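## retry 2 of 3
previous attempt timed out at serialization; input unchanged, resubmitting
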Amino acid sequence: MAETSGAARPKPLHGGLPDEIVIWEILVRLPPKSLLRCRTVCRAWRLATSTRDFLLAHHHQQPSLSVVSGSEHRGRRYEIHAFDHRALSAHHQPVARLDQSFNLEASCDGLLILYTHGTAGPCYSVCNLATRQHAPLRQLSSFGLFNLLGMYLHRPTGEYRILLHRKSHWGFTIGDRVPKGKIGCYVFVVGSDQQPRYIGGPDAAAAVYLEKPALLCDSLHWYPMQRQGGGRLVLVFDTTTESFRQMRAPRVPIRSNMVEMDDTLGIYSYKCATKTVDIWVLQNYEAEVWDYKYRVELPVAQIRGQFGLSDGHWEVSVACAHENVFLMVSYGSWMFYVDTDGELVANFHCVGRELDDCQLRLKQTLVQHTFFTALEGYAANASPFV
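## retry succeeded, writing output
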């Protein structure tokens, strides 16, 4: 005879599947918007998907998406688009609509650093597109004149930090916040009420121009665009020790860019005159061995003929997902995907918007960060979100 006493077993979240499967195999893989909708199904689902362990696992499962911005030709509305390279046939969707134009300066773990210049001067802010949280970074906005080099997670402390470079070609400081002679790199802790901390930096930093960095092995990497002379070296910033070093680079043109390529790095160069893109891939990180991998000729004639586009300026970047390499070619309100054989594989058109490849990656997150509510001017589901 079966036992009838004792505590009743908890009711499964889904009648036909074990809770372990529902939570850790299905819900954890959903995009943020879909997961938020699922939370409204029942209280049990809401509780199960709100724990920090689940949110961290959910963030880990999210794809790394290329970020493209779209601004209205005659208006202030601004859109942020994310392109999933795993599904070329799918139409892209904007992940956020904002009520004013921004420059997207940096991205890390689903957080974006925004910049705009208003009547009060430069204004930096931090936002999470998935949770629609936004807050000004007033200490950063009042710091002075600098280049924002990148954003990273400082693992020993769990803090999100921003790497800055004090501009050397300006002969003054704002509010004497930076003593004369303190030209170099600074670190700012997101959410801190302290001014950025001086860490020095390489002597060459003042003589180069740095594009958006590529992240690998907890280090930020740049291929410097030399203003004059210089060797072929990649600049590396260790985000744990917060120190710089250099690594060998292949023999590439001065105007080249770094790109994250799955578990390695790439450098690509676009030749406007010939409409060709050369791509080098790092084969061995420790030995600093590079391989000249691709030369891609853009299908310019096909694009012009098929879509009726005239000659103009083409913006080209490289994206990689699951060992598949693609070129993202933007022209006005059009975005084209080209594979390494030079074949046009997809196109996207945003009518009335000027598309700009931000050269950033977005890995969305619903993880809650306490620094948001501590910042003056914090808001959620409010301006600048529409």
